[in-house]
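Practice record 12: protein with glycyl-adenosine-5'-phosphate.
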Amino acid sequence: MYIIKKKIGNNEYFYLRKSVRKGKKVIAKTIAYLGKTRKEAEEKMNQIINKPNKPIEKIKKPEIQIKKMDNKNIQKELTIDELTAFCKRKGFVFQSSLIYGGLSGFWDFGSLGVDLMNNIKKDWWNFFVQQKENMIGIDASIISHPRVWKASGHEASFADIFVKCRKCKKPGKIDKADIGKVKCECGGELENLGELNLMFKTQIGTEGYSYLRPETAQGMFSDFKLVQETSRKQLPFGIAQIGKCFRNEIAPRDFLFRSREFHIGEFEFFIHPDEKKCSLLDERHLNLKLQLLDAETQARGKDELKETTIKKMLEEKKLEEWHAYWLAEQILWYRKIGLEKIKIREHLKTELSHYSSATFDIDYEYPFGSKELGGIANRGQYDLTQHMKESGEKLEIFDEASGKKVVPKVIEPTFGIERVFLAILCKAYNYDPGRENIVLKFPARLAPVKAAVFPIVKNNEMIKVAREIFNNLKKEFNVIYDESASLGRRYARMDEIGTPYCITIDSDSIKGKDVTIRDRDTTTQIRIKISELKEILKKLINSEIKFEQAGKIVETRVKEI
Ligand code: GAP
């Protein structure tokens, strides 16, 4: 029997452990909690050893500083400040230029953050571009001709009304339609400080000025004809891109939720102007259930959600078929990456953007409130017509059926990628009361690090095998090698950054050429052959097999307390 110490936050806790031999294996078991100081622990251990017949004190987890909550509650109680601090502590995301005090609305992604972000972007691209026959990807420049922004209407109307509360002095922004109608959260009157265009203006050489793009959409409109000709696509087809956008937000807030530099993933889907039918709409889309806050309910000043289906929305003529198809596809992607708590909000006619005839916001229930994650707008022929007028170029397409040239109408699904990133993090963030630490339960496909490789102890033979496995796996996945600290500590470190699988090399691995894989969410372990490791990991990450079916379940060698 021996004493072990466990550190939780700034506190230390002592436990009594016992090693028992089971066949060839030695299993360590925690049998009693001994208190918070070594002295107290030694006294209690002596009592237990000297009075073996006395029933030992039942293992009781210590009262720790972290508030214990079930997963449901922690989701509710997770605050944006807590998440911001966690992301900085673990190196996911931190404020830009911190050595100069930071710059409001700008964020830097650390190594884990950039991998998570890239995985989200890759999944988006795979779903909406690679797997769709009628979609072409582009990557347009961030700065374009200033006349692009004149034609699109952004130069004249992409503005917010800048306000300041007369009582609490907090700055903010409101929509033009709300001037004189809304008050500050504190109840104070809002002072109108005038209009501010949200585009960042920038000097271009000695030629003049332009703007950093506030949306990626205009690249797809101005390149429309060239992309159509080079790809030889016929209507209907879409042009997609993901890229950085910039908005000079008056009041950036809520971590990544409202920043001044962020990514938008969006596509413009071009359709014959007379087309009413969508050939791709099937039962999966039509029967998709969703929570809708419709325009009529909002007009009555209420915010009750209705459960509806895409089919019902079509019957009620809330949208056209292609609009409905892409709304359903958007929801299907969100569900695929684990975001279920989605609500759809129909825009009131009075709040539609200058280019849209029908828009729906897609909101996510973040722990700090239900907020916009993305949207889908019917932009009609607005943008192509505007660019034809401004440039003098014909942005039409020849329609073989009618033998006429037409200007396509457009459906635009849009995604705030940082908002998706934030939703994925909120969903993944779980406090595990058994393990007494945070476990980020990312879907394996999105997790920044896919696996960690550990020799169970620092033994040359085990290190050699572990390093060979690590070098082989890192050709395929983002993996970490770690031989420092106890195995339990190494597991906890991986749980906290959401690594789905930990691979342990022990003394049996040398002879048996096999290893143990531990599943992050259940801590279940399986034993598999080293020769099969890469293929099994690939299948696990792509959810092609269940963990328990991937190998023989084995007992945990080192107890995780
Ligand atoms: N092309 C359409 C368009 O730009 P939008 O609703 O203005 O539409 C698209 O922006 C998405 O970009 C929003 O749904 C939101 O998710 C995200 N977004 C907008 N402003 C943002 C900001 N300041 N910070 C982070 N994401 C933002």
